[in-house]
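Hey, quick one: can you model this chain's 3D structure?
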Amino acid sequence: MTTQDLHRPLLDSLTFASARAQAEALAAGRVSAVHLLEHVLERINRFDNDINAVVARNDEGARAAAREADAALARGERRPLLGVPITVKESFDVAGFVTSSGNPDFANNVVAQDSLAVAALRGAGAVIVGKSNVPLALADLQSYNLIYGVSNNPWDLARTPGGSSGGSAAALAAGYVALELGTDIGGSIRIPAHFNGVYGHKPTAGLVAMRGTSVPSGRLVDRDLSVAGPLARTASDLELALDLLLNLEPLAAKAWKATLPPARHANLKDFRVLVIDQWPGSARSLHEALVVERVVERLRTQGVKVTRPSELPAGLLPDLTLSRRVYRSLLGSSLATPPALSKAAQKRLETLAPDDHSADAAWLRAPTLRHSDWLKDNEIRVSLRHQWEHLFEAFDVVVTPVAPLPAFRHNHSEPKDARTYPIRFEDGTREVRFLDLFHWAGLPVLPGLPATSFPVGLDDEGLPVSAQAVGPYLEDRTTIAFAALLEEVYGGFIAPPGYETDLAAGA
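Sure thing. Here's the predicted structure for all 507 residues.
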């Protein structure tokens, strides 16, 4: 019997534990970083041929880091993640690894130093196991590319784990690691978290330094709207990671730092909650109804005051239709070199009426948006942020779905903007366009608000489902605390069938 076998019961108990719990076990000497890492590598070797979540590894480098962590622990050092194994999204620079964002043009782009965010987690003692899969150019709700292949959802291998942080969420759900690092511009943290039944936090815009992410390498300017943030299996780990990711920009640190206000409430019953489950002009899907009604039932059982949009005074809720148009405009104009429109999209662009101010028209015009028009949209963005701030005088969080559907079956048809997805409504199943899957994901992105995706159980097909809590600007602790309080009462992450440890399975 090997030493690893002797530690098997304890290691099994830590498989789906939080990063905090793993760090505590390491600090208490109940397990070594080396043994915990070997357990992680065993699980990746066992399951990842099917899931394909962790697509780049340096096992010997990770083993060396684990040995260093054990030596530091033996010396009495204590850091928040000392010896805890983690993986990070492929688009983050990790010294010695390729950063490609799934683009074959950058398949040999080996980087020399960590991104600021990765360096912060490594500085906190984390052992970097490897990098998790992404879609080409991070531009899909699925995670597949010509370099690393297709990632699958551990809940159903025929379904996607989401994108662009799809490999990240799958690695958490499969019990590889307890903490991941992702990015979000169109739900790329929150939608994969929803599809896999884990937690994800999109921070307030500008809080987490983005330097050292994506390609080409060496950029100093962050992409507009995009943020970096954590994914985890518990809400408390989101806050642990967020604290480590703050105040990393060296130039800003010379003069100021962010000190986030505490959560507004410590008790669930004190939260004032607005729930929205139907986007203006769209029918409510059965999935949207399920998610929000489940949250509403739980909140009311706990004595929480819940309000619907129909109960608001006129003008208090920001204009969601305007928000979506401006979001599509700024999102589409946020790339220095945007991808070419499909032939069908180009034809639609050529026939647009000058007075067409729809969200579709904004998306089509975005790649060639005049700077003067961008400035007008930016003014609307900031105005909407102030309108949300006014709403948050009356409410603490706004709860919405994350997406109109759970994890869907793989669909790699081209062009991407012509794809449709089956969504169930009260009157039957309809095919919904790819572009119409982002209403809820985009809602907090445009005004730069924090949003926490949190699991609320399974649907009638046995797939995980989640809601999101959107909060006031710079009040990230409030949305995370709200998710944590619900988790405390109702539970949160559920391990997918077949991935439980031998101990949990009763073997």
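One thing worth noting: Confidence is low (pLDDT under 50) at residues 503-507.
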